[in-house]
Every structure is written in structure tokens, then in C-alpha cells.
Amino acid sequence: MKIVVIGGTGLIGSKLVNRLREQGHEATAAAPNTGVNALTGEGLAEALKGASVVVDVSNSPSWDDAAVLNFFETSTRNLLTYEAAAGVGHHVALSVVGTDQLSESGYFRAKIAQEKLIKSSSIPYSIVHATQFFEFLKGLADISMDGNKVHLPPVLFQPMAADDVASGVATIALGKPIHGVVEIGGPEEFRLDDLVRRRLATLKDPREVIADPKALYSGAKVGERTLVPGKDARLGKTSFETWLNQSAQRAA
Ligand SMILES: NC(=O)c1ccc[n+]([C@@H]2O[C@H](COP(=O)([O-])OP(=O)(O)OC[C@H]3O[C@@H](n4cnc5c(N)ncnc54)[C@H](OP(=O)(O)O)[C@@H]3O)[C@@H](O)[C@H]2O)c1
Prior knowledge:
Strand content: 15-25%
Mean pLDDT: 98
Strand order of the largest sheet: 2-1-3-4-5-9-12
Bound molecules: NADP nicotinamide-adenine-dinucleotide phosphate
């Protein structure tokens, strides 16, 4: 089966392309540096020729409110238009657990717009909502600075390894379209501030992390369980400790 991975050179995309190839599929990585630009449409017609499935794991280079909204709206419209012309039978997109409740955030307004376009298109689809990646914990600190300290609400969250995200998305891409949302998450629950503090300590990053109930997540207020998947979520196996050990081994 030919599967085109939009954003196939990124963190999740490159792992996903490998997973699909390991399982004997013709998976191609589509991104600006392979000549495919979902934002301008460049290279899409050629890339989608003969494809059965398109998986969109791209991300906007800029998280500025207007830029990210333009990225997800324009690229999703382009993808769905070119997919219809090429006869693609399954559009899979990666989004985030809790997206619907995070509309105060510019980034999440863009993800909501992306999902709305997919749901109203004629292409059979599956939307995967993943929890935060362990790989993103430092990034979370970076977007949560107030002065020189990291301010995070001490809410629950259930992050997961990028390897498990790629495996979860691969399984869904190879199955029948769900015509809805499926959630994937990590095997353990943590407090958001606590795990970011632990991650910064392992990186010897001296920034102090403050548990601040009024702090926002990516610009949005979050409740105790906004970032936690529901009971039907498919859970990855990699614990935080295992991921830390694996990351240290890879770095060595
Ligand atoms: N971070 C989290 O914790 C989290 C949690 C749940 C879901 N997600 C979702 O996961 C998705 C993937 O995240 P990621 O961290 O793997 O992203 P990433 O590593 O930043 O990769 C983004 C990919 O998108 C490509 N791209 C950028 N502009 C493009 C364009 N115009 N046309 C086609 N491809 C383009 C990039 O190509 P170049 O490298 O060539 O620019 C790259 O391959 C995102 O949609 C995000 O919302 C993230």
C-alpha cells in the first residue's frame, strides 16, 4: 500500500515512515525539503499519485496565532483537494488530546480549524488525538516562561514517547477510516509542573518550575483533566523512566 506522510521528515513523521516501511508498505516522506509543500501545493499532485492513505503529521514552523491558523487551514484544504483528485481513500491527521477545550490558545484554534475541515470533507478520515510527547517537555517549559521562571498549572497529564505515537498512528493509518477521533496516551499520569521539573533536572537546566494554578497551557486555561485522555484511549508502553534511559543511550 502506498502511504504518503506529510511532515514525514519531522519527529513523529520520520519514525512513522520507518514503522510503515518495516511492515512492508511503500511509505514516502513528504515535506518542503523533499519537494512537497502542503502550504503552496507544490509537488502534491505528483506525491499523491497512486496513494491509498495520506497521514498528516506536519506542523507549522511558526506558532504565531495568525501564522499557525493560516498553516493548518491552507495546508489541510490543499491536502483534501489533492487527495480527492488522486482518489485517496483515507486521510489521517495527528492532533492533541483536549484540543476542543483549548480554544483560548491560538495554536489550538488552528488545530480545531484543521479538524473541522477534515470532518466536513468527502475523504474518509481518522483523527488521532495524542497526549504531549516526552520529547516536548523542555519545549513546554520554553513556552511557559514568566520572567525567568517556568509557570505551569499543576494539572494531571499523561504524556507519551514519540516512538509510541508513531506506532499508534501507524496502526490507525493501516486500519479502516474511523470517521471520528481516537485517543492515544502514555502509561502513567503525572502533574504537569512535576514532570517538567524532573525533565529540566535531567537536562541540568537550572530554570525553576513554579506550580501556579493560574498559569496557562499554551495560552489557554486548563482544568484538572483537560490534558488526560478518556478511558477508551490506546496507551503506549514506554514509561518516563524507560524513555529517559533510552534517550540517554541514544545520546551516548
Ligand atoms: N508536541 C506534542 O507534544 C504534540 C502532542 C500531540 C500532537 N502533536 C501534533 O503532532 C504533529 C507533529 O509534531 P512533530 O513534533 O512531529 O512536528 P515536527 O518535528 O516539528 O515536524 C514537522 C514536520 O512538518 C513539516 N512541514 C513544515 N511545513 C510544511 C509544509 N509547508 N508542507 C509539508 N510539510 C511541512 C516539516 O518539514 P521541514 O522539517 O522540512 O520543515 C516536518 O517534517 C503536529 O501536528 C502537532 O500538533 C504534538
